[in-house]
Amino acid sequence: MADSKTSGGAAAGATSGKRPVIVTCALTGGGDTVGKNPAVPVTPEQIATSALDAAKAGAAVVHIHVRDPATGKPSTDLALYRETVERIRAVDTDVIINLTTGAGARFIPSDADPRVGAPGSTLAPPEARVRHVEALRPEICTLDITTMNFGEFVFVNTPAHLRVMGRAVAAAGVLPELECFDSGNVRLALRLIEEGVLREPAMFQLCLGVPWGAPATPEAMMFMRDMLPKGTFWTGFGIGPAQFPMVAQAILLGGHVRVGLEDSLHIEKGVLAPSNAALVEKAVRILRALDTEPATPAEARHILGLPRGPA
Questions:
Q1: Within 13 Å of residue 187, how many CA atoms lie on the same side as its CB?
Q2: Whole-model pTM?
Q3: In the chain, which stretches have pLDDT less than 50?
Q4: Nearest alpha carbon to residue 225 among 234, 216, 217
Q5: Which pLDDT belongs to residue 271?
Q6: 303, 2 Cβ separation under 8 angstroms
Q7: Nearest-CA neighbor of 254 among 282, 290, 301?
Q8: Residue 207: which of 166, 177, 237 has the closest Cα?
Q9: For residue 297, which of 36, 17, 2, 25 has the smallest C-alpha distance?
């Protein structure tokens, strides 16, 4: 992997001579967005179709949550993950699959007893949060290195739970994408690397603009990037209106990018995004305007040190 300040130099097989930038598309997320934009995919078929369209548009990586097809609410059902992954693999064995492990970390203290979760809490044992990763063996899965106020609830990922999840992911041969929402998260991730829980060089994702984490600003992205050790791959994104400004910022700082309906429902101010593919296409236009090129899945595997094809 390349130097953290210029992460992702020219990959083997690149023919243009321009820096290949990995585009990740976050397809649906677990937020309350269903119904706010009809393009948000819900069923395994819809999520897989959206993933395939995003890959055709230039995404090398597709980041996957699943939802209950009946309600649109976030789900951890292994059968839904399996169907989604199998539908993608049946058509495109090249695109890199990245499964979330974020579900199962939400806590809302009840009014009667704050020690007890109120309705909407989803806290689950760390082993349960990685079972689908162990079963399906994607190339990448997320690992949220944070405990924080996440809007109006608490997103709980204690160091002890992260150690359990990190070791399970490593044993499954899956690369963890270390999602950091503030500078202290980077510090914790580096400690887990020092402990040997997480491999080095690592894959970092700088997640900006989420209430109440680091803001989606050039200064915040640069500060967190500069905390990373030499040789670390990183990518970054901003949510909502900051989605595309942070695409440009990450490219200028030598990183890689993420877009998708998980992060923003709009393609420009006041205009709903018609699809994940449309968001990827706009990101690709920004990449090319800045004299870079979207990495192919093969180039992305080379940059990330992944096997040449799916496991």
A1: 5
A2: 0.93
A3: 1-6, 8-13, 310-311
A4: 234
A5: 98
A6: yes
A7: 290
A8: 237
A9: 25
Residue 305: Cβ within 10 Å count: 12
Which DSSP category does 11 fall into?
A: P
Q: Report how far residue 139's alpha carbon sits from residue 307's, in angstroms, rounded to the nearest whole number.
A: 8
pLDDT in tens, 206-219: 999 999 999 999 99
CB 154 within 8 A of CB 218: no
- Cβ(185)–Cβ(146) below 8 Å: yes
Q: Is the peptide bond before 234 cis (omega within 30 degrees of 0)?
A: no
201 upstream amide cis, omega within 30 of 0:
yes
Return the sign of the alpha-carbon dihedral for residues 266, 271, 277, 282. Answer: negative
Amino acid letter, 76: T
Tokens of 206: 């700088």
Angstrom distance (rounded) from CA 195 to CA 253: 29
The 10s digit of each residue's pLDDT in 152-179 is 999 999 999 999 999 999 999 999 999 9
Residue 66 CB neighbours (<10 A):
29
Q: What is the phi/psi pair of residue 229, to 5°?
A: -75, 160
- pLDDT on residue 277: 98
CB 131 within 8 A of CB 78: yes
The SS3 assignment for 34 reads coil
Tokens standing for 10? Answer: 């020219």
Q: Which of 44, 125, 49 is nearest to 78 (CA)?
A: 44
Instruction: Give the closest residue to 205 by CA, choosing from 236, 161, 160.
Output: 236
Q: How far apart are CA 297 and CA 300, in angstroms?
A: 5
Helix 44-57 and helix 276-289, axial crossing angle in degrees, nearest 10: 20
